[in-house]
Amino acid sequence: MELPVVNHKDYVAKLGDDHKFPINKFGELAKYLIDQKVVKQFHNPTACSFETLNRAHSKNYINDIKNKTLDEKKIKKIGFPLVDSVVQRSLVATGGTVLASKLALNYGVACNTAGGSHHANYNEGAGYCVFNDVAVAAHYLLDRGFANRILIVDLDVHQGNGNSEIFRDNRHVFTFSMHSKTNYPAKKSISDLDVELEDEAYIKSLKFYLNELNNENFDFIFYIAGVDIHFNDRLGKLKVSDEGVRLRDELVVENFSSKRIPICGVLGGGYNKDFNKLVELHSILHQSCAKLI
Ligand SMILES: [Zn+2]
Q1: How far apart are CA 285 and CA 266, in angstroms?
Q2: Which of 5, 148, 151, 278 has its CA 20 to 30 A from that of 263?
Q3: What is the Cα–Cα distance from 251 to 155, expressed in whole angstroms?
Q4: How much distance in Å is there from the Cα of 228 to the middle of ligand 1?
Q5: Ligand 1 centre and the CA of 74: distance in Å?
């Protein structure tokens, strides 16, 4: 059996060649996973429905995205142009994480080749995040009784502020974010890491927090595996190596898989100066999860 992985060609929105965001990574990652024989065939998502989105986002915000009527200031905060392909991408990538979460229930583990839009909030998007796919999928699982106590493990270099705000008063979802102290957004948290942390100190912190998390009884895990913790990332301020990223992903997925808790892995951020390296780093999530199958 192979790892269920969700992908859609519409993940690659048309941003224009001079845009800073490496949007082509989604298409290249899919090719790389096929080349490396991690995946033979992808599961194809559909656009997330209004009703499902509405559990994590306001009606006005969803309509403003779908109708492209969001005001300029809010579009700027997201950082993508509000064009048809970006709207479509946001809907399909969110549907992708919902689908991956359902596959994780059936297979124990499943991944999206996008997702982890953790800065998006109830009423607005931010930092290249339009809809908060993990928050939407978590609500989807809770609503149907598929999970009752969800943990979001967010190891992107940036804090998962959208999730922590959306679920602030929800005792069924716990957000754990371990991120760089000085990276966006400028908000303090107990799991802020010092800048320039290298492999050994990074992994030591991770083990400490996993140990703490193991004292709780979670029944579903979303893992946001941002690779902007890498030393060669354009935005991240940590100094983790390729091997460190691999060790991190393996530690996380093996930790929860050994307790038979379903895991849904999503990409999170990555802005490596080397595009091919970026694709390779993102694929470590899928490779680590494939070992569990
Ligand atoms: Zn990030």
Answers
A1: 8
A2: 278
A3: 12
A4: 6
A5: 19
Residue 149: phi and psi, rounded to 5, are -145, 95
Torsion of CA 68, 129, 7, 287, to 10 degrees: 170
Along the chain (293 residues), what's the average pLDDT of each consecutive run of 10 residues?
Answer: 97 93 97 98 98 98 98 98 98 98 98 98 98 98 98 96 95 94 66 86 96 96 98 97 98 98 98 98 98 96
| 128 Cα–ligand 1 center, Å | 9
**Ligand 1 centroid, distance to 155 Cα (angstroms):** 9
Q: Which DSSP category does 24 fall into?
A: T
Q: Ligand 1: distance of its center to the CA of 282 in Å?
A: 12
CA of residue 154 to ligand 1 center, whole Å? 10
* 268 CA from centroid of ligand 1 (Å): 6
Angle between helices 242-257 and 275-290 (to 10 degrees): 20
What is the spatial distance between Cα 24 and Cα 244, in angstroms, rounded to a whole number? 24
